[in-house]
Protein backbone atom coordinates (compact mmCIF):
# COMPACT_ATOMS: atom_id res chain seq x y z
CA UNK A 1 0.00 0.00 0.00
CA UNK A 2 1.42 3.35 -1.04
CA UNK A 3 1.80 6.33 1.27
CA UNK A 4 -1.23 8.26 0.04
CA UNK A 5 -3.30 5.04 0.28
CA UNK A 6 -2.25 4.70 3.94
CA UNK A 7 -3.18 8.32 4.62
CA UNK A 8 -6.55 7.89 2.89
CA UNK A 9 -7.23 4.72 4.89
CA UNK A 10 -6.37 6.51 8.13
CA UNK A 11 -8.75 9.33 7.25
CA UNK A 12 -11.51 6.82 6.44
CA UNK A 13 -10.86 5.08 9.75
CA UNK A 14 -11.11 8.32 11.69
CA UNK A 15 -14.31 9.15 9.78
CA UNK A 16 -15.69 5.72 10.72
CA UNK A 17 -14.80 6.35 14.37
CA UNK A 18 -16.68 9.64 14.26
CA UNK A 19 -19.66 7.95 12.57
CA UNK A 20 -19.78 5.29 15.30
CA UNK A 21 -19.62 7.95 18.01
CA UNK A 22 -22.45 9.86 16.31
CA UNK A 23 -24.60 6.70 16.19
CA UNK A 24 -23.90 5.98 19.86
CA UNK A 25 -24.71 9.56 20.88
CA UNK A 26 -27.89 9.55 18.80
CA UNK A 27 -28.94 6.31 20.48
CA UNK A 28 -28.44 7.86 23.93
CA UNK A 29 -30.36 11.01 23.00
CA UNK A 30 -33.32 9.11 21.53
CA UNK A 31 -33.43 6.71 24.48
CA UNK A 32 -33.44 9.69 26.84
CA UNK A 33 -36.33 11.32 25.01
CA UNK A 34 -38.37 8.11 24.96
CA UNK A 35 -37.71 7.65 28.70
CA UNK A 36 -39.43 10.96 29.37
CA UNK A 37 -42.54 10.01 27.42
CA UNK A 38 -45.28 8.34 29.41
CA UNK A 39 -47.61 5.78 27.92
CA UNK A 40 -48.21 2.08 27.46
CA UNK A 41 -46.23 1.92 24.21
CA UNK A 42 -43.05 3.53 25.57
CA UNK A 43 -41.21 0.24 26.12
CA UNK A 44 -42.20 -1.02 22.66
CA UNK A 45 -40.98 2.18 20.97
CA UNK A 46 -37.74 2.13 22.93
CA UNK A 47 -37.13 -1.51 22.00
CA UNK A 48 -37.74 -0.84 18.30
CA UNK A 49 -35.41 2.17 18.30
CA UNK A 50 -32.77 0.15 20.15
CA UNK A 51 -32.93 -2.58 17.51
CA UNK A 52 -32.76 -0.04 14.69
CA UNK A 53 -29.66 1.66 16.10
CA UNK A 54 -28.01 -1.70 16.89
CA UNK A 55 -28.60 -2.93 13.35
CA UNK A 56 -27.08 0.26 11.92
CA UNK A 57 -24.03 -0.09 14.18
CA UNK A 58 -23.64 -3.75 13.24
CA UNK A 59 -23.72 -2.89 9.53
CA UNK A 60 -21.04 -0.25 10.10
CA UNK A 61 -18.82 -2.65 12.09
CA UNK A 62 -19.35 -5.52 9.65
CA UNK A 63 -17.67 -3.51 6.88
CA UNK A 64 -14.49 -3.06 8.96
CA UNK A 65 -11.37 -5.22 9.30
CA UNK A 66 -10.87 -6.65 12.83
CA UNK A 67 -7.86 -4.35 13.33
CA UNK A 68 -10.03 -1.34 12.43
CA UNK A 69 -12.73 -2.42 14.88
CA UNK A 70 -9.98 -2.69 17.52
CA UNK A 71 -8.97 0.89 16.68
CA UNK A 72 -12.55 2.06 17.22
CA UNK A 73 -12.86 0.18 20.54
CA UNK A 74 -9.57 1.64 21.81
CA UNK A 75 -10.68 5.18 21.05
CA UNK A 76 -14.08 5.30 22.73
CA UNK A 77 -14.96 5.46 26.46
CA UNK A 78 -15.49 2.18 28.37
CA UNK A 79 -19.30 2.45 28.57
CA UNK A 80 -19.65 2.91 24.79
CA UNK A 81 -16.99 0.22 24.25
CA UNK A 82 -19.17 -2.31 26.08
CA UNK A 83 -22.19 -1.37 23.93
CA UNK A 84 -20.26 -2.08 20.73
CA UNK A 85 -18.68 -5.25 22.12
CA UNK A 86 -22.13 -6.68 22.82
CA UNK A 87 -23.04 -6.32 19.12
CA UNK A 88 -20.14 -8.47 17.88
CA UNK A 89 -20.32 -12.22 17.25
CA UNK A 90 -17.97 -14.73 18.87
CA UNK A 91 -15.85 -15.29 15.71
CA UNK A 92 -15.42 -11.52 15.38
CA UNK A 93 -14.60 -11.08 19.06
CA UNK A 94 -11.82 -13.68 19.04
CA UNK A 95 -9.92 -12.06 16.17
CA UNK A 96 -10.48 -8.54 17.51
CA UNK A 97 -9.15 -9.44 20.98
CA UNK A 98 -5.79 -10.26 19.42
CA UNK A 99 -5.63 -6.79 17.83
CA UNK A 100 -6.47 -4.81 20.97
CA UNK A 101 -4.08 -3.06 23.34
CA UNK A 102 -3.52 -5.07 26.53
CA UNK A 103 -5.41 -2.73 28.85
CA UNK A 104 -8.50 -2.62 26.61
CA UNK A 105 -8.36 -6.39 26.13
CA UNK A 106 -8.18 -6.95 29.89
CA UNK A 107 -11.17 -4.65 30.39
CA UNK A 108 -13.31 -6.53 27.87
CA UNK A 109 -12.24 -9.99 29.06
CA UNK A 110 -13.11 -8.95 32.62
CA UNK A 111 -16.67 -8.19 31.50
CA UNK A 112 -17.17 -11.61 29.86
CA UNK A 113 -18.20 -14.90 31.40
CA UNK A 114 -16.08 -18.03 31.18
CA UNK A 115 -18.59 -19.51 28.74
CA UNK A 116 -18.23 -16.49 26.44
CA UNK A 117 -14.43 -16.84 26.45
CA UNK A 118 -14.65 -20.55 25.60
CA UNK A 119 -17.05 -19.80 22.74
CA UNK A 120 -14.84 -17.18 21.11
CA UNK A 121 -11.70 -19.32 21.61
CA UNK A 122 -13.34 -22.16 19.69
CA UNK A 123 -13.24 -19.99 16.55
CA UNK A 124 -9.47 -19.33 16.75
CA UNK A 125 -6.66 -21.46 15.35
CA UNK A 126 -3.85 -22.89 17.48
CA UNK A 127 -1.40 -20.01 17.06
CA UNK A 128 -4.12 -17.45 17.82
CA UNK A 129 -5.15 -19.30 20.98
CA UNK A 130 -1.50 -19.47 22.05
CA UNK A 131 -1.26 -15.71 21.55
CA UNK A 132 -4.41 -15.12 23.61
CA UNK A 133 -3.68 -17.52 26.49
CA UNK A 134 -1.14 -15.33 28.37
CA UNK A 135 -3.72 -12.52 28.36
CA UNK A 136 -6.33 -14.60 30.20
CA UNK A 137 -6.64 -15.20 33.97
CA UNK A 138 -4.85 -18.43 34.89
CA UNK A 139 -7.98 -20.43 35.78
CA UNK A 140 -9.75 -19.32 32.60
CA UNK A 141 -6.68 -20.11 30.47
CA UNK A 142 -6.67 -23.66 31.87
CA UNK A 143 -10.37 -24.03 31.02
CA UNK A 144 -9.73 -22.89 27.45
CA UNK A 145 -6.81 -25.32 27.10
CA UNK A 146 -8.86 -28.19 28.53
CA UNK A 147 -11.69 -27.56 26.04
CA UNK A 148 -9.42 -28.03 23.01
CA UNK A 149 -9.05 -31.27 21.09
CA UNK A 150 -5.81 -33.21 21.56
CA UNK A 151 -4.13 -32.00 18.37
CA UNK A 152 -4.93 -28.34 18.99
CA UNK A 153 -3.99 -28.63 22.64
CA UNK A 154 -0.58 -30.07 21.75
CA UNK A 155 0.15 -27.21 19.34
CA UNK A 156 -0.93 -24.55 21.84
CA UNK A 157 1.21 -26.07 24.60
CA UNK A 158 4.15 -26.22 22.20
CA UNK A 159 3.78 -22.54 21.31
CA UNK A 160 3.42 -21.52 24.95
CA UNK A 161 6.63 -23.34 25.89
CA UNK A 162 8.75 -20.75 24.06
CA UNK A 163 9.76 -17.53 25.83
CA UNK A 164 8.32 -14.21 24.76
CA UNK A 165 10.55 -12.51 22.21
CA UNK A 166 11.63 -15.76 20.57
CA UNK A 167 10.81 -17.01 17.09
CA UNK A 168 8.97 -19.99 18.61
CA UNK A 169 6.51 -17.65 20.33
CA UNK A 170 5.66 -16.00 16.99
CA UNK A 171 5.47 -19.06 14.74
CA UNK A 172 2.25 -20.46 13.30
CA UNK A 173 1.31 -24.04 12.51
CA UNK A 174 -0.79 -23.63 9.36
CA UNK A 175 1.67 -24.53 6.59
CA UNK A 176 2.00 -26.78 3.56
CA UNK A 177 4.66 -29.51 3.38
CA UNK A 178 5.66 -31.70 0.42
CA UNK A 179 8.24 -34.40 -0.34
CA UNK A 180 11.21 -33.89 -2.66
CA UNK A 181 10.29 -36.97 -4.75
CA UNK A 182 7.04 -35.30 -5.84
CA UNK A 183 6.56 -33.48 -9.15
CA UNK A 184 5.07 -30.05 -9.78
CA UNK A 185 1.82 -31.68 -10.92
CA UNK A 186 1.70 -33.73 -7.69
CA UNK A 187 2.10 -30.55 -5.63
CA UNK A 188 -0.67 -28.73 -7.49
CA UNK A 189 -3.04 -31.67 -7.06
CA UNK A 190 -2.09 -31.86 -3.39
CA UNK A 191 -2.84 -28.16 -2.87
CA UNK A 192 -6.27 -28.52 -4.49
CA UNK A 193 -7.25 -31.00 -1.77
CA UNK A 194 -6.68 -28.48 1.04
CA UNK A 195 -9.93 -27.22 2.51
CA UNK A 196 -8.27 -24.00 3.73
CA UNK A 197 -4.83 -22.96 2.53
CA UNK A 198 -2.76 -20.53 4.63
CA UNK A 199 -3.64 -16.90 3.94
CA UNK A 200 -0.02 -16.02 3.12
CA UNK A 201 1.06 -18.97 0.98
CA UNK A 202 4.14 -17.81 -0.92
CA UNK A 203 6.14 -21.01 -0.37
CA UNK A 204 5.82 -24.64 0.68
CA UNK A 205 8.35 -26.61 2.69
CA UNK A 206 10.09 -29.77 1.54
CA UNK A 207 10.57 -32.40 4.27
CA UNK A 208 11.33 -36.10 4.54
CA UNK A 209 9.42 -38.80 6.42
CA UNK A 210 11.06 -37.76 9.69
CA UNK A 211 9.99 -34.14 9.29
CA UNK A 212 13.54 -32.95 8.55
CA UNK A 213 13.56 -29.76 6.50
CA UNK A 214 15.35 -30.22 3.16
CA UNK A 215 14.43 -27.00 1.40
CA UNK A 216 11.91 -24.36 0.46
CA UNK A 217 9.81 -24.29 -2.71
CA UNK A 218 8.51 -20.92 -3.92
CA UNK A 219 4.97 -20.95 -5.29
CA UNK A 220 5.98 -18.77 -8.22
CA UNK A 221 8.41 -21.53 -9.28
CA UNK A 222 5.65 -24.12 -8.99
CA UNK A 223 3.32 -22.11 -11.20
CA UNK A 224 5.93 -21.35 -13.86
CA UNK A 225 7.41 -24.88 -14.12
CA UNK A 226 6.42 -27.86 -16.25
CA UNK A 227 4.11 -30.40 -14.55
CA UNK A 228 6.69 -33.20 -14.71
CA UNK A 229 9.49 -31.17 -13.11
CA UNK A 230 10.85 -32.79 -9.93
CA UNK A 231 10.56 -30.80 -6.71
CA UNK A 232 14.18 -31.60 -5.77
CA UNK A 233 15.25 -29.67 -8.88
CA UNK A 234 13.21 -26.59 -7.94
CA UNK A 235 13.62 -26.32 -4.19
CA UNK A 236 16.08 -23.97 -2.49
CA UNK A 237 18.13 -26.07 -0.07
CA UNK A 238 19.91 -22.96 1.29
CA UNK A 239 16.81 -20.87 2.05
CA UNK A 240 16.67 -18.81 5.26
CA UNK A 241 15.29 -20.80 8.19
CA UNK A 242 14.99 -19.99 11.88
CA UNK A 243 15.26 -22.06 15.04
CA UNK A 244 12.58 -21.86 17.67
CA UNK A 245 14.95 -20.27 20.20
CA UNK A 246 16.21 -17.54 17.82
CA UNK A 247 15.55 -13.94 18.83
CA UNK A 248 12.42 -12.40 17.29
CA UNK A 249 14.34 -9.13 16.87
CA UNK A 250 16.98 -10.91 14.80
CA UNK A 251 14.26 -12.61 12.76
CA UNK A 252 12.67 -9.21 12.10
CA UNK A 253 16.01 -7.90 10.85
CA UNK A 254 16.41 -10.94 8.58
CA UNK A 255 12.91 -10.47 7.14
CA UNK A 256 13.81 -6.88 6.31
CA UNK A 257 17.26 -7.74 4.96
CA UNK A 258 16.13 -10.61 2.71
CA UNK A 259 12.63 -9.27 1.84
CA UNK A 260 10.94 -12.38 3.23
CA UNK A 261 7.20 -13.00 3.39
CA UNK A 262 7.50 -16.23 5.35
CA UNK A 263 10.19 -18.61 6.56
CA UNK A 264 10.35 -22.11 8.07
CA UNK A 265 10.98 -22.67 11.78
CA UNK A 266 12.86 -25.78 12.88
CA UNK A 267 13.79 -27.33 16.22
CA UNK A 268 17.27 -28.38 17.38
CA UNK A 269 17.03 -31.56 15.28
CA UNK A 270 16.24 -29.55 12.12
CA UNK A 271 12.66 -30.86 12.09
CA UNK A 272 10.08 -28.46 10.69
CA UNK A 273 7.76 -27.33 13.51
CA UNK A 274 6.16 -24.15 12.18
CA UNK A 275 6.29 -21.11 9.95
CA UNK A 276 6.83 -17.46 10.78
CA UNK A 277 4.94 -14.99 8.57
CA UNK A 278 5.48 -11.34 7.77
CA UNK A 279 2.25 -10.28 9.51
CA UNK A 280 3.49 -11.65 12.86
CA UNK A 281 6.85 -9.96 12.30
CA UNK A 282 5.16 -6.62 11.58
CA UNK A 283 2.96 -6.97 14.66
CA UNK A 284 6.03 -7.74 16.76
CA UNK A 285 7.97 -4.74 15.39
CA UNK A 286 4.99 -2.45 15.96
CA UNK A 287 4.56 -3.73 19.52
CA UNK A 288 8.24 -3.21 20.31
CA UNK A 289 8.27 0.27 18.74
CA UNK A 290 5.22 1.40 20.72
CA UNK A 291 6.57 -0.11 23.92
CA UNK A 292 9.93 1.62 23.49
CA UNK A 293 8.33 4.97 22.66
CA UNK A 294 6.08 4.93 25.75
CA UNK A 295 8.74 3.50 28.06
CA UNK A 296 11.07 6.37 27.22
CA UNK A 297 8.61 8.77 28.85
CA UNK A 298 7.66 6.42 31.69
CA UNK A 299 4.33 5.14 30.37
CA UNK A 300 3.09 1.56 30.22
CA UNK A 301 2.67 0.22 26.70
CA UNK A 302 -0.80 -1.09 27.55
CA UNK A 303 -2.22 2.07 29.14
CA UNK A 304 -5.88 2.61 28.27
CA UNK A 305 -6.61 6.13 26.97
CA UNK A 306 -9.90 6.06 28.89
CA UNK A 307 -8.72 4.34 32.07
CA UNK A 308 -9.83 5.87 35.40
CA UNK A 309 -7.92 9.04 36.29
CA UNK A 310 -6.67 7.66 39.60
CA UNK A 311 -5.20 4.51 38.02
CA UNK A 312 -3.38 6.42 35.28
CA UNK A 313 -2.04 9.01 37.73
CA UNK A 314 -0.76 6.29 40.07
CA UNK A 315 1.09 4.54 37.21
CA UNK A 316 3.03 7.74 36.47
CA UNK A 317 4.04 8.64 40.04
CA UNK A 318 7.34 6.77 40.07
CA UNK A 319 8.62 8.52 36.94
CA UNK A 320 7.43 11.95 38.02
CA UNK A 321 9.11 11.36 41.36
CA UNK A 322 12.34 10.33 39.64
CA UNK A 323 12.21 13.38 37.38
CA UNK A 324 11.56 15.62 40.38
CA UNK A 325 14.56 14.12 42.19
CA UNK A 326 16.90 14.63 39.24
CA UNK A 327 15.64 18.18 38.74
CA UNK A 328 16.31 18.90 42.41
CA UNK A 329 19.88 17.57 42.06
CA UNK A 330 20.43 19.84 39.06
CA UNK A 331 19.13 22.80 41.06
CA UNK A 332 21.59 21.99 43.86
CA UNK A 333 24.43 22.09 41.33
CA UNK A 334 23.30 25.54 40.25
CA UNK A 335 23.05 26.63 43.88
CA UNK A 336 26.76 25.88 44.36
CA UNK A 337 27.54 28.76 41.99
CA UNK A 338 24.99 31.32 43.19
CA UNK A 339 27.77 33.79 43.84
CA UNK A 340 29.11 33.55 40.29
CA UNK A 341 25.63 33.93 38.80
CA UNK A 342 24.91 36.96 41.03
CA UNK A 343 28.07 38.73 39.80
CA UNK A 344 27.58 37.86 36.10
CA UNK A 345 23.84 37.65 35.44
CA UNK A 346 24.53 36.78 31.79
CA UNK A 347 25.50 33.27 32.93
CA UNK A 348 21.86 32.53 33.78
CA UNK A 349 20.83 33.27 30.19
CA UNK A 350 23.54 31.11 28.59
CA UNK A 351 23.44 28.21 31.04
CA UNK A 352 20.39 26.35 29.53
CA UNK A 353 22.05 26.31 26.09
CA UNK A 354 24.89 24.10 27.26
CA UNK A 355 22.60 21.66 29.11
CA UNK A 356 20.17 21.46 26.17
CA UNK A 357 22.79 20.74 23.51
CA UNK A 358 24.39 18.16 25.78
CA UNK A 359 21.06 16.41 26.27
CA UNK A 360 20.47 16.28 22.52
CA UNK A 361 23.90 14.77 21.89
CA UNK A 362 23.43 12.20 24.64
CA UNK A 363 20.01 11.14 23.35
CA UNK A 364 21.45 10.53 19.88
CA UNK A 365 24.06 8.20 21.37
CA UNK A 366 21.44 6.50 23.58
CA UNK A 367 19.25 5.80 20.53
CA UNK A 368 22.16 4.19 18.67
CA UNK A 369 23.22 2.23 21.75
CA UNK A 370 19.73 0.84 22.43
CA UNK A 371 19.32 -0.15 18.79
CA UNK A 372 22.75 -1.80 18.80
CA UNK A 373 21.92 -3.78 21.95
CA UNK A 374 18.52 -4.84 20.58
CA UNK A 375 20.02 -6.08 17.31
CA UNK A 376 23.08 -7.53 19.10
CA UNK A 377 25.35 -5.34 16.97
CA UNK A 378 27.14 -4.05 20.07
CA UNK A 379 29.13 -6.68 21.95
CA UNK A 380 31.77 -6.69 24.68
CA UNK A 381 34.41 -6.83 21.95
CA UNK A 382 33.32 -3.75 19.99
CA UNK A 383 31.81 -1.68 22.82
CA UNK A 384 35.04 0.27 23.42
CA UNK A 385 35.31 1.12 19.74
CA UNK A 386 31.72 2.36 19.71
CA UNK A 387 32.28 4.52 22.79
CA UNK A 388 35.51 5.94 21.32
CA UNK A 389 33.70 6.79 18.10
CA UNK A 390 30.84 8.56 19.91
CA UNK A 391 33.24 10.48 22.14
CA UNK A 392 35.18 11.52 19.03
CA UNK A 393 31.98 12.76 17.44
CA UNK A 394 31.20 14.64 20.67
CA UNK A 395 34.62 16.33 20.58
CA UNK A 396 34.24 17.36 16.92
CA UNK A 397 30.70 18.68 17.37
CA UNK A 398 31.71 20.38 20.61
CA UNK A 399 34.62 22.14 18.91
CA UNK A 400 32.57 23.22 15.87
CA UNK A 401 29.47 24.43 17.66
CA UNK A 402 31.47 25.72 20.61
CA UNK A 403 33.32 28.04 18.22
CA UNK A 404 30.04 29.09 16.59
CA UNK A 405 28.51 29.95 19.96
CA UNK A 406 31.70 31.72 21.06
CA UNK A 407 31.39 34.05 18.06
CA UNK A 408 27.66 34.60 18.68
CA UNK A 409 28.24 35.36 22.38
CA UNK A 410 31.07 37.75 21.55
CA UNK A 411 28.91 39.78 19.15
CA UNK A 412 26.09 39.93 21.70
CA UNK A 413 28.08 40.75 24.87
CA UNK A 414 31.52 41.84 23.50
CA UNK A 415 33.34 39.83 26.18
CA UNK A 416 36.14 37.54 24.99
CA UNK A 417 36.38 35.71 28.30
CA UNK A 418 32.66 34.86 28.22
CA UNK A 419 33.06 33.53 24.66
CA UNK A 420 35.92 31.32 25.88
CA UNK A 421 33.71 29.98 28.67
CA UNK A 422 31.00 29.10 26.14
CA UNK A 423 33.39 27.33 23.79
CA UNK A 424 35.12 25.23 26.46
CA UNK A 425 31.83 24.38 28.17
CA UNK A 426 30.20 23.12 24.99
CA UNK A 427 33.28 21.10 24.10
CA UNK A 428 33.36 19.40 27.51
CA UNK A 429 29.57 19.02 27.72
CA UNK A 430 29.14 17.31 24.34
CA UNK A 431 32.09 15.02 25.00
CA UNK A 432 30.66 14.01 28.41
CA UNK A 433 27.10 13.61 27.08
CA UNK A 434 28.27 11.26 24.32
CA UNK A 435 30.17 9.17 26.85
CA UNK A 436 27.18 8.99 29.23
CA UNK A 437 24.84 8.20 26.32
CA UNK A 438 26.86 5.03 25.73
CA UNK A 439 27.52 3.99 29.33
CA UNK A 440 24.01 4.47 30.81
CA UNK A 441 22.18 1.98 28.48
CA UNK A 442 25.15 -0.41 28.72
CA UNK A 443 25.01 -0.32 32.53
CA UNK A 444 21.25 -0.92 32.59
CA UNK A 445 21.62 -3.83 30.16
CA UNK A 446 24.44 -5.31 32.25
CA UNK A 447 22.19 -5.14 35.35
CA UNK A 448 19.45 -7.01 33.51
CA UNK A 449 17.23 -3.97 33.06
CA UNK A 450 15.59 -2.79 29.85
CA UNK A 451 17.84 0.03 28.52
CA UNK A 452 14.81 1.77 27.00
CA UNK A 453 13.11 2.04 30.38
CA UNK A 454 15.11 4.63 32.30
CA UNK A 455 17.93 5.63 29.96
CA UNK A 456 16.30 8.88 28.91
CA UNK A 457 15.47 9.93 32.47
CA UNK A 458 18.93 9.10 33.80
CA UNK A 459 20.63 10.78 30.85
CA UNK A 460 18.60 13.97 31.38
CA UNK A 461 19.66 14.05 35.02
CA UNK A 462 23.33 13.55 34.15
CA UNK A 463 23.49 15.99 31.23
CA UNK A 464 21.61 18.70 33.12
CA UNK A 465 23.67 18.38 36.28
CA UNK A 466 27.01 17.99 34.50
CA UNK A 467 26.13 20.65 31.95
CA UNK A 468 25.40 23.20 34.65
CA UNK A 469 28.47 22.15 36.65
CA UNK A 470 30.80 22.33 33.63
CA UNK A 471 29.48 25.69 32.47
CA UNK A 472 29.36 27.38 35.86
CA UNK A 473 32.62 25.77 37.00
CA UNK A 474 34.41 26.93 33.84
CA UNK A 475 32.93 30.43 34.26
CA UNK A 476 34.11 30.59 37.85
CA UNK A 477 37.66 29.60 36.90
CA UNK A 478 37.95 32.00 33.96
CA UNK A 479 35.89 35.00 35.01
CA UNK A 480 36.78 35.23 38.70
Whole-number tally of structural domains: 3
Q: What overall form do the CA principal axes indicate?
A: extended
Low-confidence stretches: 1-7
**Order of secondary-structure elements:** HHHHHHHHHHHEHEEHHEHEEHHHHHHH
Describe the structure.
It is built from 22 helices and 6 strands. The chain is mainly alpha-helical and 480 residues long. It has 3 domains: 3-164, MgtE N-terminal domain-like (MgtE N-terminal fold, Alpha Horseshoe), CATH 1.25.60.10; 177-278, CBS-domain; 309-479, SLC41 divalent cation transporters, integral membrane domain (Tetracycline Repressor, domain 2, Orthogonal Bundle), CATH 1.10.357.20. The strands form 2 sheets. A 3-stranded mixed beta sheet has the order 1-2-3. Helix 15 (248-258) links the parallel strand 4 (242-243) and strand 5 (262-266). Helix 1 runs antiparallel to helix 2. 28% of the residues are buried.
Task: List the main descriptive attributes of the protein structure presented here.
480 residues, mainly alpha, CBS-domain, 3 domains, three-stranded mixed beta sheet, 22 helices, disordered N terminus
Topology overview:
Layout: H1 3-36, H2 42-62, H3 66-74, H4 78-86, H5 90-99, H6 102-110, H7 114-121, H8 126-132, H9 138-146, H10 150-160, H11 167-170, E1 177-178, H12 184-192, E2 203-207, E3 213-218, H13 219-224, H14 231-234, E4 242-243, H15 248-258, E5 262-266, E6 272-277, H16 278-295, H17 309-335, H18 338-343, H19 346-374, H20 383-413, H21 416-446, H22 452-479
Parallel strand pairs: 1-2, 4-5
Antiparallel strand pairs: 2-3, 5-6
Helix pairs in contact: 1-2, 3-5, 5-7, 8-10, 15-16, 17-22, 19-21, 19-22, 20-21, 21-22
Amino acid sequence: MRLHDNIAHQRDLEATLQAVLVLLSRQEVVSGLVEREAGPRRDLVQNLLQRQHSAELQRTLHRLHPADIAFVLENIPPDKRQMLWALLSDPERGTILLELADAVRENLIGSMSGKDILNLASHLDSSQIAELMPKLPEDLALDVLGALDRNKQSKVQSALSFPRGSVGALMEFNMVTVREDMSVDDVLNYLRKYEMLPATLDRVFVIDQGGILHGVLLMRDVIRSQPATAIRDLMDAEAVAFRTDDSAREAASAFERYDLLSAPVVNLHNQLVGVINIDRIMDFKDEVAQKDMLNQVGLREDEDLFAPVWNSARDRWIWLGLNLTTAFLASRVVALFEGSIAQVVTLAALMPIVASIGGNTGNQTVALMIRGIALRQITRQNFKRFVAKEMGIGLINGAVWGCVMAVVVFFIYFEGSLSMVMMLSMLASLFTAAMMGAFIPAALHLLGRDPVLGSSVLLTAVTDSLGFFIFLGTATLILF
